[in-house]
Amino acid sequence: MKKYFLIYLLSSIIYGQSGIEIAKMVDTRKTPKDQSNITKMVLTNSKGKQRTNIVRSKSMDGNKKQIMWFMEPKDDKGVAFLKIENDGKDDEMRMWLPAFKKVRRISSKKRGDSFMGSDLSYEDLSTREIADHDYSRLDDQTINSKLCYVLEIFPKKGTNSSYSKHISWIEQSTLMILKEESFDKRGQLKKKKEFSNKELYEYLVMKRIFVEDVQKKHSTEVTFEELKVDTGISINLFQEKNLKRLPKN
Amino acid sequence: MDKVIKKYSDHPLRSWFIRQSLDYPKRTIIFSILLTLIVGSGAQFFIIDDDMIKLLPKNLDSRVSWDAIQDEFGSTEVILVAFGKKGKSVFNPEAMATLWDLTEAIESTDQVEELTSISSATRMDNIDGFMEIDDLQLYRDLSQQEVNKIEEYLNKNPTLKKRFVSEDDEYLLATIQPYESGSLNTFRDSVTAIAKPILSNYEVHYGGQAYVTGTMPAMIRDDVVSLARIGILIMVTILLLNLRSFSGVFLVIMVIGLSLVAMIGFMGWIYHLTGSDRFLFTLANTSMPIILLTIANSDGVHVVSKFFKELRLKQDSRIALAATMDTLLIPIFLTTITTIAAFATMTLSPIEPLFGYGIVIGAGIGWAWFLSSLLLPAVISLKKWNKDSNAITKPSIFEKIINRFGKVVLTHPKYVFSVGVVFVIIGFTGLSKVVVDVNMVKFFKPGSEIRDSWDFLDEEMTGTIDIRVRVEGDMKNPETLSSMIKLQSVMEEDEKVITSYSIANVVEQMHRAVMNDDPNYEIIPENREKVNNLFTMYSMSGDPDNFSTMVDYDYKVGLITAFSKVMTTTEIFDYVEKMNQEVKLLKAADIDLEFTGMIVILRDLVVMIVNSSVLSIIISLIIIGIIASVFFKRILWGILAVIPLSSAVIINFGFMGYFGIELSHITALLSSIIIGVGVDFSIHYISQFRRLSRSVDSKKLSKEVIDDVGYPIILDAGSNMGFGALLFSVFLPIQYIGGLMVFAMVSTSLGTLTILAALAELLKHRLINKG
């Protein structure tokens, strides 16, 4: 036992943190209590055709509670979406359909399904639970002059995931993810993701995500504008009744 | 004597040709073989592909619509895999697990764009107020109760059920769509290789256009090889019986073999250089090697048999060869030109592979002439011939028959002519009975695996003929969607159309799910906002990619897909006409629609085949008439040359009508082949008639001509029985061509020796005086 501990200690000194330790560091990184922004999503298909969606979004608890009001395309104006992630249970998702004047609850069983027709799935947007994954650290690499930890992340057996593996590049100085590649169940590369961040008060928050589904040859660029953090969003905002009206700010 | 040999011929060009064979035989042989090998090396670029769509010109409306649909919605050519056990419902856990395994295994290949089956389908439910979009089959191993839920859902959605399960619930269906750019034969091989072990415990049926197209190259390749073997065997047997000389037979086979090498190589080169689909080797081309074999054989037979005859008379092989070539160079050249001309008319055909067929076989025939005129006499001149052999000293069986035949024609020309005319009249009355049918299923024999599978899918599943309507308009506009639903109901009014589906059906289904699963709401919502809300909601809970085969990315173009059982040509025409009327009405309502799919392709092919056949017959007869008139310096000869051909064409098509042999893009070749091959007989006869008319008494003229050319004509026709090899093809239309060509050889050769001979005898005074 002593021998194993010594090996572990030595390797820790030589290689620094293990994969799981880095994942924990990322997970405990300081994040805003709440966030609001205008999310612009540009979808481009294999033939170069584009679709643009703009939504006003407010979220808290690291996106575990999120409400969105659709602004563009014009056809979608008035539609609103509420998502509340519940630990250990299916997420609760509701939509306000103004033309029907009805709120409809929708299912979220298929985590691999696309979110709003984009290349981001519900799984991509959800918090990755550390306990549900195995982490292994690869050799560090430099991306755009930024030294990165490189982690291989495997969903544990029994975890509801549409992926077999991810490789993530995490900037060492900020613990922000810069790049990720996700592999499907067959082990084939499925998505390439690039992230860029900006500093807002004492936080580093994402300002752009670019995802390419290499198999479908479809891409999505998400940009977050009018970013605000810690504005004191009330938990009461995340209620069905608030879907029906677009907030002024 | 030496002077005669050196001069060889009165004509400088003929003399030059003969000199190459007699004075420089080794050089001529090396040059000919080397050139053949260079051309033959193009075989490396030779490609077998039989895609029905590639038959159509790229600018044809239905082809344009088809291509647009492929571009917008992915490949519409699919492989259908149906499996199950007769008498047992597929709604059991074991069958569902097998379907799951099949779906997973096939989806994991990189050639499959989409697989549609129960295992890959989604369900849309309203559960306790939840609009739930989920997998229809959640996992591989289901309990019987879970399977029952799937059955219940499908029974509630009969349109969906028709796409996945057979009418009696005994078979499951998976529809597999390849990537548009992929090769269908690799795709087909890959799908069957994966499915075979997974479905080993089930009765399996494959079908769909992609399956047939993917299966064809290997079938065509095997068929061509087998037919060529049988064809050569038949020819060798006939040649041996008549030439009674192994060396003679070998020489003819050498010409045939090298011509074939050159033709295949030429086809490869021309495809390589042009990249045109017209030069792909399709099912229609299956008959091509056999046709070339017979034509090349014909040239060779004339040279060898004439040489034997001359050797018998002159007893000196060099003199005999010089005399042979001096007599035959012009007729062989002329028959080559006229045969090429007949096949060249195929280039006017709107059916793409027929264009390539005409060019490539023309090149092959040209090469056969080149080898027969240079290589063959060069090889003959190098061999030492035994002048005492039976082949040279004694006339063959054919020669003896011809002697008797000549007497009959000469004694009763009017009687012989009348019998010929009666045959033509009988043939003429059969023309109206000819049915045009291009459905590929009819190309396979009943009882063959591919035909049985096709029939099974037609009877038990959705049908195999696809019908598509491309709808251009606002796919979120309720009026557009309602029009689509209306059109679908009209489409389904025909009892052979089993099912149809479009994005409009999905909208109806979503509407019902949102409205608490109330069946009264399974309709198109009344305004655009509601339709849009439904699509947005789907994008939040399901994968909008599920709609990619029904609506384009911008929701501006939709696709209605329907499947029908095999229809007759008349039914296809009526159906397409009816649908076009419906489409016109909807167009008036400001929606742009294009009616297409395999059904329209079949309709257009029928029209093209009829036009192509008529055009090919008329043009080739005119060209041959003109060539004969020019060469023989008399219009009457031109007319007489085409009479036996026209008669043979009428008799053949008439017999097709009587025997119910359908005219398809494969059998449409018949007219060109009959004219192209049959013209040789007329040319030989007229050529000899003119030649002998200068020296022989008019009373004995016809007898002398028949004596002289009758034998090679009958031997030519006899050795052309190699066409009979086509009777052994696995493809029915090729078999029909084989049978009809055997008949055509008999009718054209006899037509020449009866109708033409009788007419020449009747008109001899005019022909001799002004000839």
What does this protein structure show overall?
- The complex is a heterodimer of chains A (249) and B (771).
- Chain A has one domain: Lipoprotein localisation LolA/LolB/LppX (outer membrane lipoprotein receptor (LolB), chain A), CATH 2.50.20.10.
- In chain A, 11% of the residues lie in helices and 48% in strands.
- In chain A, β10 and β11 form a beta hairpin.
- Chain A has a 13-stranded antiparallel β-sheet, covered by helices on one side.
- With 249 residues, chain A is mainly beta.
- Chain A contains three helices and 13 strands; from the N terminus they run ααββββββαβββββββ.
- By secondary structure, chain B is of the alpha+beta class.
- Chain B folds into three domains: 2-52 and 214-433 and 603-770, no CATH class; 78-207, Alpha-Beta Plaits (2-Layer Sandwich), CATH 3.30.70; 446-596, no CATH class.
- Helices cover 65% and strands 8% of the residues of chain B.
- Chain B has helices at 2-7, 12-22, 25-40, 61-73, 93-107, 144-156, 158-164, 184-198, 209-243, 246-274, 288-314, 317-344, 352-382, 390-393, 397-411, 413-430, 449-460, 478-492, 503-514, 528-541, 569-588, 598-631, 635-659, 670-693, 698-719, 732-762, 764-770, and strands at residues 79-84, 112-116, 122-127, 130-135, 171-178, 203-207, 465-472, 497-501, 557-564, 592-596.
- Chain B has a four-stranded antiparallel β-sheet with strand order 2-5-1-6, sandwiched between helices. In chain B, strands 8-9-7-10 form a four-stranded antiparallel β-sheet, with helices on both faces. Chain B has a two-stranded antiparallel ribbon with strand order 3-4.
- In chain B, a hairpin with a 2-residue loop joins β3 (122-127) and β4 (130-135).
- In chain B, α16 packs antiparallel against α26 (732-762), α22 (598-631) packs antiparallel against α23 (635-659) and α24 runs parallel beside α26.
- The longest helix of chain B has 35 residues, at 209-243.
- Chain B is elongated.
- Chains A and B meet through β5 and β6 of A and β4 and α20 of B.
- β6 of chain A pairs parallel with β4 of chain B, so a sheet runs across the interface.
